[in-house]
Amino acid sequence: MSLSWFIIRGSGVAAFALIASALLWGLLTSSRVLGRAVGAKGLQRFHESLGLGALLATIIHIVAVRMDTFVEFTWRDILVPGASQWEPLATTLGAVGFWSLAVVTLTFYVKRWIGHDRWRALHYLAFGTFLASLLHATLAGTDGGNPYLLGLYLSSLVAIVLLTVIRVVTSVQRSVRSATG
To answer: Residue 7: which domain range?
Structure first.
């Protein structure tokens, strides 16, 4: 096991954990599960920080993969979905996950220019980012049988599905209350 393998692996796991955490935090705040426990600005800044951390960890992962000599990826292999011959589905999912993560994260900084509705629509890409990252990790990762990572992947997925259901139900309830008024 080389140093680059440890960096690739560590940054990949960190990126996944931060992507999952950012999505979970966004769902917790948007569904109002936490009530008013924390101020809105603090919630948004923490959520934004998780997204930026995920993007940084992903960039480190990408650079380490590019520098590693085991597979000898080109920038095109890494950044263009479908370009890699090595594990094409897994690398495509990684590239799609990276680009969607970049879009979702950068929407924090263009929200005032694109408006709330477009921002929200683009922010829904976070679900695809998580799913692409989860599939990339399970298909390309070298720790597919590691029970700790499987636990991370499964618990993240269950929590996100559960909070998504709660988010949808609370949104429908709010709409019904406002319509009946």
So the answer is: 3-173
